[in-house]
Amino acid sequence: MDNRLILASASPRRDELLKTLAIPFEVVPSLVEETRVDGESPSQAAIRLAELKAREVRGRYPGRIILAADTIVVLDGQMLGKPKDIGDAREMLSRLSGRLHVVITGFCLIDGSSDREIARAVATEVKMKRISAAELEGYLSSGEPLDKAGAYAIQGTGAFLVEAITGSYSNVVGLPLAEVCEELKQLGVYPFADRGGHC
User: Which residue numbers are catalytic?
Assistant: First the structure.
């Protein structure tokens, strides 16, 4: 019987982050459509979407441990998703330029053998440098902003935009590793166990 952890995400960034914990896992993207609900806070939205993703995959893979996550960029209380097009990305980055914003990742772990669920949200403050017009257009021409929440990737070319962060770096990338590691241990999954190590 396959008892590997399932990462319910198609994100290559989450895949790369989870691999650093040396836990055997497989990737099974969730089929949940990401929608917002009026009146919910960014943390509530991130957790709700992570729970929906985890539960959808659990329905297809009963008995397994599932990990799902959702990352949201927040500026002045407004949630910024992935830009619809280049124009939308330009507007987002122009608003973020020189400003402090918050990146929130909600994650959900489900132990399919016991139906136990763990869900948390982690927030990181990010200060973006003031972006010149030439820098903005150059970054937009790379194509990187188009499939990223907030229109930038801190782990990619977009790193040059980030002046400072307060909190978890991996959280901004898409998965808060320290917190995920602690919660995995609650479910009996120990990173680096085959190496005699621990979180």
Answer: 70
